[in-house]
Amino acid sequence: MLAQGFFRHHHLSEMITPLLLALPILGVFWFDALGALTLFVVAFAVGLLLHPRHLWIVWLEAVVLWWLAGAAWTLWGEDAGPGEAEETVISFMIETFIFTAILVLFPLYLGRAAHGGLTAN
Are the C-beta atoms of 65 and 22 separated by less than 8 Å? Predict the structure, then answer.
């Protein structure tokens, strides 16, 4: 209980979460569906165990991480992948908001709600 209070008081859960989500976000670019499933599971676990107070901060951190991973993939990737040659920067940015809402924000909310349901009397 002391650790949970420390994390919530100092907002450390919002600071630690990007570190926990970084590898699954990169996994989405390398492993497609398996990476997306991993990201969903990790986001649910973060919501359940750390239950961050402000989900939108964690979601925007995931959006920025996704943008950085996409930029790195575009710059250093050997292959853009099928159908991605026509993708513009704006479409990538809009798709990122949608994908992270489904793969990060929704499971974070579910995990936090499950934590509240598990600890309620």
Answer: yes
Distance CA 5, CA 7 (A): 5
- For the stretch 37-49, pLDDT in tens is 999 999 999 888 8
Taking the complete model, does pTM exceed 0.85, yes or no? no
24 Cβ contact partners less than 8 Å away, ≥ 6 residues apart:
35, 38, 39, 42, 43
Separation CA 59–CA 73 (nearest Å)? 21
Tokens encoding 60 = 């925007």
In the three-class reduction of DSSP (H, G, I as helix; E, B as strand; rest coil), residue 83 is classed as coil
Q: Two tokens at 1?
A: 């209980």
| pLDDT tens digits for range 5-19 | 555 555 666 677 787
Cα→Cα distances 66→3, 10, 49, 101, Å: 29, 25, 23, 12
Q: Specify the amino acid at residue 118.
A: L
Q: What is the per-residue burial (b if ≥16 Cβ within 10 Å, else e) of 73-88?
A: beeeeeeeeeeeeeee
